[in-house]
């Protein structure tokens, strides 16, 4: 058996804690799982070295019942406690956890007091005032929950990029075992690296399509078969995500991949281009036009997408840019050069145990060194962010001492690596930053981010962010609207003036590659290029594991937003 994936374990333990709270269990038990989640995250792969329950129990904060769970996970890749909770708690109630601003404790309270279980019932209970009347809730928080429910209902048919990617990769790995499989690609919005995805589209060439489709419909993740044809199947998998699999003839593969990658807008552009060249393009191939009709007996021999673009007298266009935004550039053969993982020189924006991170600065730095980076810019939270362990001025100064000492250590070890002193400063309600200027001036770089009072009205919010951008210490604006994809709309902020002002001030706007955030939104890429806006690809990592976000989600986002490497701070050997 393959070894269980330890990178998922902290999330699974956190979910166990949430479900315990939702089921009304004692907080004490839930907290134990939360602590275990942190321990497991910091152990990483070392957890595998524990060959018995007793050995797992020797870890800090791990008692015998959780040791048993961890051991089961190491052996089987499953957590019995979690599975038991998922089986016992109604699925409709578990859905409440996806409502931002509610939380498992609040959900349990409402569920028990009002004896309701579904989101529809919850919505009704808010609308007729029953939730507002509960102790600890009130009108304002009830309204916020209602807004979050409505927001989610509008977006329930989509999921985040990271979730889609994980499901797609598992599916692809399973399907790859099919004998006679010659091609298998993920197409659609996921291939274009959209921040959210509707359904997943797979395209294949296979000598034995029946076996492939049979396997697809019987994957362990599949909960429902929607369509079962010989060359086209549709299923629901995971949390209700639809997946389509098509099998085509090998001669049609390139044209089908182009078609099913989309976007629709890009397809319309390509078909128009074909007409201009007296050709016709569809999902089966590219054909000459003969008396206004496709000459199907005579397809142009294109085995790859690149050959199709060439036959249309166009440069190859990476899927990330096929969105109907760059077509006039494509026509003029000016496709922007996109970054790759090899262009990254270092990591900026990471948290440590000094604020709400799970790993020490040294552990984060060593992980970066191992991955071949030249630097890490640590940015813990600033003092107003009390909920996230924000740093007092004294702690800032103590952290600087630790960073100086670590830089000396790396020098002594002849490791070419630098830790930069940064801070993620809250932008206060009036646009001021969170420390006196003389402290701010002591950092190598400052990321200014919105974290609180996100519901300010539009003009106050605009002024707040624009004021922050004009502070001389600011290097980057962090996650500009503080949106949470499919959960929370961001601050009411007009981005165009913000982007123009940032570029004028020489301040960058980060590409925050936490999959929940994924902003600056890529739709601003063209304007950003026009005004020469700078950026950095920022993992906003709170653990060693999350450092991977730079590559996994950040590179796709930077490509999609068409930032050339010259405009990306952490693609430079020296970022500031
Ligand atoms: P999604 O699933 O909503 O995240 O977005 P897509 O882009 O994956 O859309 P989907 O799954 O409906 O279709 C996959 C691709 O197939 C789409 O990007 C372009 C192509 N396609 C589908 N329907 C049409 C259509 O009616 N016209 C054109 N031109 N292309 C289409
Ligand atoms: Ca799709
Ligand atoms: Ca589809
Ligand atoms: Zn952060």
Walk me through what this model shows:
This protein is of the alpha/beta class and 576 residues long. The chain folds into four domains: 6-154, DNA polymerase beta, N-terminal domain-like (DNA polymerase, domain 1); 159-247, 2-Layer Sandwich (Beta Polymerase, domain 2), CATH 3.30.460; 257-331, DNA polymerase, thumb domain (Beta Polymerase, domain 3); 341-571, TIM Barrel (Alpha-Beta Barrel), CATH 3.20.20.140. A six-stranded parallel beta sheet has the order 11-12-13-14-15-16, with helices on one face. Strand 6 (232-237) and strand 7 form a beta hairpin. The longest helix has 20 residues, at 393-412. The model has no long low-confidence stretch (mean pLDDT 95). The chain binds 2'-deoxyguanosine-5'-triphosphate (DGT), calcium ion (CA) (2 copies) and zinc ion (ZN). One calcium ion (CA) binds next to helix 11.
Name some characteristics of this structure.
DNA polymerase, domain 1, alpha/beta, 23 helices, 18 strands, five-stranded mixed beta sheet, Beta Polymerase, domain 2, Beta Polymerase, domain 3, 576 residues, binds zinc ion, binds calcium ion, six-stranded parallel beta sheet, 14% strand, 4 domains, binds 2'-deoxyguanosine-5'-triphosphate
